[in-house]
């Protein structure tokens, strides 16, 4: 059997830092050992206690001066938009027209799809991200290419074919029936194959007819473990357009709700401009919101009200998303740092560093209803890990030396850190990325 062992300081969550003092939600093992067999963690705890359990012949990968975490989880990202990142000057609807649609049109070519899928997955691993909920394009080939590349790496990925049957260029439109048939075929091929999972993916209410949304709802309801992902209430112009397209609906969320698209494993990107009754409905239905702070700042979309969303009286599941290519970084560390700033802009409560790390790991896993598989370091969990280097740059080294608590150190990492802090990434019990160099 395939065995591995990691030694070093590791951190993992045993509770929810939004419902208890953040420090109490975190377990820290100062000199820890993580034992892995066939891609799963079998034992973890203090090195001195567990060292006797290291199987003969297994060499221990030691990470002194590092911090081992569960791999990061990106709950909203578009792989075909890798080439669109950092495109100047527009807000959402114009940005889609000018930059996104022309780029996505190229993904009818499977070679383009494969090249970009590969580059995208490498970029995730360079950033310590081991699971993501990923939008492909309208072309089924784009989904096949993505899952094929993910399968080679052994990453647990959630992805799906974008559905668009109106308000998009000819080359990017399907029809309600064709979108249904193509999605069905991809579900049959990929959902539950190895670590791959399928998400029914209507882009948003503007680009799908009511018929297509109903078809997406039928697909989503057809199996009890499928995902659904779409965009919700991101931008004022978008919301106004949705109102004219669906005048009879009580809210933007209600457009999706009436189509059967709201429930557990439904992931709504952005959800910036939601009303209280929408949050209540999200809580009641156990769907999830993907908070994408770098994207919301880049497109000038608005400030997500995180603490309203997770209000303990009716908490809604929330994860963090990079939303590449509207987002400006693949790094969940950077995304946490921006989420902190957005929390200050949006209200009185300040995101705590431990809460931010939870949103990128255990909290995201809960939002995806995958908390029994990923997001924490514990026996039985899948062995997806990232190894953080708190002194990756001279500035980080200088600043982290001064930290008197783990919370301070995590805050420094999320505020100053990025891909340079990822020393190694492990997927399915294998080291799939190791940072080669380090600044002197
Ligand atoms: N709304 C509909 N499509 C998109 C997209 O590709 N990116 C973002 N940020 N918002 C969207
Ligand atoms: Fe998006």
TrEMBL record:
GO terms for molecular function: guanine deaminase activity; zinc ion binding. Its EC number is 3.5.4.3. GO terms for biological process: guanine catabolic process. It comes from the Bacteria. It catalyses: guanine + H2O + H(+) = xanthine + NH4(+). Binds 1 zinc ion per subunit. InterPro entries: Amidohydro-rel, Guanine_deaminase, Metal-dep_hydrolase_composite, Metal_Hydrolase, Metallo-dep_hydrolases. Keywords: Hydrolase, Metal-binding, Zinc. Its cofactor is Zn(2+). Pathway: Purine metabolism; guanine degradation; xanthine from guanine: step 1/1. PANTHER family: GUANINE DEAMINASE. Belongs to the metallo-dependent hydrolases superfamily. ATZ/TRZ family. Catalyzes the hydrolytic deamination of guanine, producing xanthine and ammonia. This is Guanine deaminase.
